[in-house]
Amino acid sequence: MSATMLIAQISDTHIKPEGRLAYERVDTAWHLGRCVEHLLALDPRPDVVLATGDLVDAGLAEEYRRLARLLAPLPMPVYLIPGNHDARDPLREVFAHHRYLPRSGFLQYAVDEHPLRLIGLDTLVPGEGGGVMDEERVRWLDARLAEAPHRPTLIFMHHPPFRTGIDRMDRQGLASAEAMGKVIAQHPQIEAIVCGHLHRPIHTRWQGTVVTTAPSPAHQVALDLDKGDKLGWVMEPPACLLHVWRAGAGLVTHTSYVGEFSGPYPFYKAGKLID
Predict the structure, then answer these.
(1) Rounded distance between C-alpha atoms, residue 143 and residue 133, angstroms
(2) pLDDT digits (tens, 9 = 90+) for 68-93
């Protein structure tokens, strides 16, 4: 196994049926197509892609079929987990060729074939905006972590286990995060936990590890740290995350913006800094 690994994280793609726009304005399929092109153009290319939930907007089979077509150009493994907008059975039926997905029950799993061990968690509560790590799911996570206590591990999930300060989103956060946190604190091999749901890049330290949320390749949740009922979305630059893992050095996360931007330009000319 190589001692390095490049992991792309996309999240909250919210794919809708053909001809439908999110909030009557956002062509999420077009944005995901641009993100796929962005990943294909990277040098080096990611070794794997994590898609951390809210893959589609209403959990419809036709949405998952459209998602599958959009992701098809990616040659590397793509690992899917559900968010609160997803539905387990249509997801697993359309992506039956993704052999890592359990055939029944929660859509959570461990992947052992890469230098960095990957554990995907299912936090979905059907019909609810928030998620949960209930007793059954916490026990499952503890058992998976206990299987390989010395292998560096990355956990990916949809709902972040911490309060972000965006009040309305925090009300739809992760229930029973404290129980999950007790397990996380007992397993020092966890390099990081990466999440979606917030449509923003947010970072914090939690239970002895680092937790990061990813922006969306389409629309973002407005940054509003006032308490109250305000919640809106903005067309800030679409982005994904790139997680670089090196043995002995750990995980470093970069925000990679999707789009056409001028540059890069040199800092130096003829060996001298350009002033």
Answers:
(1) 14
(2) 999 999 999 999 999 999 999 999 99
Phi, psi values for residue 254, rounded to 5°: -120, 145
Chain centroid to CA 7: 10
pLDDT confidence of residue 230:
81
pLDDT beyond 90 at 228: no
Start-to-end Cα distance in the chain: 45
Coil, strand or helix at 92 = helix
3-class secondary-structure state, position 26: strand
Pairwise CA distance, residues 147 & 249, whole Å: 23
Cα 163 to Cα 186: distance, rounded to the nearest angstrom? 21
Sequence-separated (6 or more) residues with CB below 8 Å from residue 64:
15, 55, 56, 90, 91, 93, 94, 95
pTM, two decimal places: 0.96
CA dist., res. 204 & res. 207, Å (int): 10
Nearest to 150 by CA among 114, 188, 181, 120: 188
pLDDT averaged over every residue in the chain: 96
Burial string for 83-108 (b: 16+ CB within 10 Å, else e) reads bbbbbbebbbebbeebeebeeeebbb
Total domains in the fold of the chain: 1
* Structural domain that includes position 134: 4-273
Domain of 93: which CATH number?
3.60.21.10
Q: Using CA atoms, how far apart are residues 206 and 117, in angstroms rounded to an integer?
A: 20
